[in-house]
Design brief:
By secondary structure, the protein is α/β, with parallel strands linked by helices. The chain is built from ten helices and eight strands. The two termini are 29 Å apart.
């Protein structure tokens, strides 16, 4: 599914990003732009690789101890990454449940989220948004317990940081909260901040929700990876591969 959505990227997609910045400049402080984080502004594969390498070292699974970010070629497909680093199908199935438990104990933590790296052009684009005077709002399914690590990772990667200027970070109150429900609830808060002119997300469900709630906004889908749910993007949504938009 992730690779299929990448085929939605059309020639001239950079113009969409330039037009959004132009509109933000025209509206200034009234404009609101919403950005997801994971697989939208951040590439999580380095975090994934670190966790599985540590599992490999702890359990003496040599091939896993050498796993790298490039072994993830299909979203969050951990089995695929394990196969890509040389494990047999039998080895993958034997280890998977233990690996998954190890992963869950680490992935949603401050100590590990700092491993993320910015999507190409993402950091510069956030600063370009701030320079327009618009309100930049990060709307993420990460929960509040990850705020410190998330902000630190933003600093490491050069993104605009919450609290500096008109930059906010909306996070789930609890790890158990549903991502879809949280983002839908965040729509009301975004509407109170001004006029939402653009929203950026890698998840088709969330992108579609933005367009339905804000039909006049430009909704941009990051054609990176996603959860794999079989959801069709609405036709009006533009897919982009990254944020580097200069001709």
């Amino acid at each position: 599914m992730a690779s299929d959505l990448k085929t939605r990227v059309r020639e001239g997609w950079q113009r969409t990003l330039r037009d959004i910045l132009e509109q933000a400049r025209s509206l200034g402080s009234q404009a609101v732009l919403a950005f997801d984080l994971d697989s939208t502004l951040f590439d999580n594969r380095p975090r994934q690789a670190r966790i599985l390498r540590e599992f490999g070292l702890a359990r003496a699974v040599e091939k896993l101890s050498a796993i790298e970010p490039h072994h993830w070629d299909s979203g969050f497909d951990m089995r695929g990454a394990m196969r890509n680093c040389g494990l047999s199908e039998e080895e993958v199935e034997t280890l998977f449940n233990e690996v998954r438990t190890f992963w869950l104990e680490r992935f949603f933590t401050n100590d590990y989220c700092v491993e993320d790296v910015a999507i190409q052009g993402g950091a510069a684009f956030t600063h370009a948004v701030v320079a327009t005077g618009a309100h930049l709002v990060y709307v993420t399914g990460r929960y509040e317990g990850m705020r410190a690590g998330t902000v630190e990772c933003m600093r490491r990667n050069g993104l605009a940081v919450p609290g500096e200027g008109r930059v906010s970070l909306l996070m789930k109150p609890s790890e158990q909260d549903n991502d879809d429900a949280f983002k839908r609830a965040a729509h009301a808060r975004l509407g109170e901040m001004g006029t939402l002119i653009a929203a950026f997300d890698n998840e088709p469900t969330h992108a579609n929700d933005y367009l339905r709630r804000f039909p006049k906004a430009k909704v941009v889908h990051l054609a990176t990876d996603h959860s794999g749910r079989p959801v069709t993007l609405l036709d009006e949504i533009v897919s982009v591969p990254h944020f580097s938009h200069e001709p």
